[in-house]
Design goal:
Elements (H helix, E strand, L loop, with lengths): L6 E4 L8 E4 L7 E3 L7 H15 L6 E3 L5 H4 L2 H8 L3 E3 L4 H5 L22 E2 L5 E4 L2 E7 L8 E5 L4 E5 L22 H16 L3 E4 L8 H17 L1 H20 L1 E3 H10 L1 H9 L5 H14 L3 E3 L3 E4 L2
Parallel strand pairs: 3-4, 4-5, 5-6, 10-11
Antiparallel strand pairs: 1-2, 2-3, 7-8, 8-9, 9-10, 12-14, 13-14
Helix pairs in contact: 1-3, 5-6, 6-7, 7-9, 7-10
The structure holds zinc ion.
The site of zinc ion (ZN) has 7 residues, from loops.
Protein name: beta-lactamase
Subcellular location: Periplasm
Catalytic activity: a beta-lactam + H2O = a substituted beta-amino acid
Length: 310
C-alpha cells in the first residue's frame, strides 16, 4: 500500500525490483516494472491478483523505469499473457526493439532477460494520465543514463526507481562502463538528487526496499554515500563488484568456486572492475569479493564454495 487506493506498491526481494500498479482507470491498470526473469511466474501471479481485485482482464500497459534485468525481467511473460503494450524510456527504445545485446546491459552484467517488444517511449516532459492521476515523466540519469522517474505532484508521490532508495541508490553503471569518463556520472547522480529534492515528494516508492516519507534523511544518506564514492572512485568499483556478485548469488543461492570463477571471467563488467582495481589475479579477486560479502553476514564460504545465508 502507499496510503492511496489507486497506487499499489508491491515490495519485493532484491532480485526483483519493486512493482507498482496504478489503478483508477476504466482502461485498466498500469504496471510499472516487472521483476527479474527467474521470478516471472510470481510477477504474473501478482498482476493477476491485482486484475482480479479491480475487475480488469488485462493491464492497460506495462512501463519500465529503465531496462535493468531486475526491472524488466517479467515483460516477456506479461506481454505473452495479456498482449498489452510496453512503454520504456526513449534512450533504449531502439536497442530493445532490435534486441541489441551489445547495447542492452544483460550480457555485460552476466544477468538474464527474455526478449520483449517495446511500443512507446516514456519521454521526459510527458505526462502519463491514469484516471485522475497525472504522472510526470522526468529524466533520472546517474544509476542508469536512460532511467526515468515518475512524479504525481497532487498526490506528492514519486516512483524513484534506483535513483533514490531509503538507504542509498543503485550502482552508478556509467562509471564502470567501458571507457567510462570517470566522475561524469557521479555529477548526474547529484543532479538527479537535486531534482528529487526540488520536486519534494511526500512519499517515495523506490525500486528496492521499503517506501518512505523522510525525504531529507534519504537525501542526506545518498549525498554522503556519493561523496564517499567521489573521494575515492575505486571504492565505488569495489562496491559495484560486490553488489553484482551478491545479485548473482541471490539468483543462484550457491555456487562452487569453479562456477563462481567462470561466471566472473565470462562477465565483462566483472573483468573491467578487477582491472580497474589493479588486481591481475582472478582467483584472489574472487576470494576478496567473497570475504567482503561474508563480513556483512550475507553469505557463507568454505572450501566447497559460496552460499547465501538464511
Ligand atoms: Zn537498476
Amino acid at each position: 500500500m502507499s496510503d492511496h487506493p489507486q497506487v499499489q506498491f508491491i515490495e519485493r526481494g532484491w532480485l526483483s525490483a519493486n512493482m507498482i500498479v496504478l489503478g483508477g482507470d476504466t482502461r485498466g491498470p498500469l504496471v510499472i516494472d516487472t521483476g527479474y526473469a527467474s521470478h516471472a511466474q510470481q510477477t504474473l501471479a501478482l498482476v493477476e491478483q491485482q486484475l482480479l481485485e479491480h475487475g480488469h482482464t488485462a493491464p492497460r500497459a506495462l512501463l519500465n523505469t529503465h531496462l535493468h534485468s531486475d526491472h524488466c525481467g517479467g515483460n516477456a511473460q506479461l506481454q505473452a499473457r495479456y498482449g498489452c503494450p510496453l512503454w520504456i524510456p526513449p534512450a533504449e527504445f531502439e536497442a530493445a526493439e532490435q534486441w541489441n545485446e551489445a547495447a542492452l546491459t544483460f550480457r555485460d552484467t552476466g544477468q538474464r532477460c527474455e526478449r520483449f517488444t517495446p511500443h512507446a517511449r516514456l519521454q521526459p516532459g510527458d505526462t502519463v494520465e491514469q484516471g485522475t492521476m497525472q504522472w510526470h515523466v522526468h529524466a533520472a540519469p546517474g544509476h542508469d543514463p536512460a532511467s526515468v522517474l515518475l512524479f504525481e505532484p497532487r498526490l506528492g508521490l514519486m516512483i524513484s526507481a534506483d535513483a533514490l532508495w531509503e538507504r542509498g541508490f543503485g550502482i552508478v553503471f556509467p562509471e564502470i562502463a567501458p571507457q567510462a569518463a570517470l566522475g561524469a556520472a557521479f555529477d548526474e547522480v547529484e543532479q538527479t538528487l537535486d531534482l528529487i529534492q526540488a520536486l519534494s515528494p511526500r512519499r517515495v516508492l523506490p525500486g528496492h526496499g521499503p517506501q518512505f516519507s523522510d525525504l531529507a534523511a534519504a537525501l542526506q544518506e545518498s549525498r554522503s554515500r556519493l561523496a564517499y564514492f567521489r573521494s575515492e572512485p575505486v571504492r565505488h568499483a569495489l562496491h559495484a563488484a560486490k553488489a553484482l556478485l551478491m545479485y548473482h548469488l541471490l539468483e543462484w543461492r550457491q555456487r562452487t568456486w569453479p562456477e563462481l570463477q567462470t561466471w566472473l571471467a565470462e562477465t565483462p563488467v566483472q573483468t573491467r572492475l578487477r582491472e580497474q582495481a589493479g588486481e591481475p589475479d582472478a582467483a584472489r579477486w574472487a576470494q576478496g569479493l567473497v570475504v567482503g560479502l561474508t563480513k556483512t553476514g550475507q553469505v557463507a564460504a568454505d572450501e566447497a564454495g559460496v552460499r547465501l545465508r538464511g
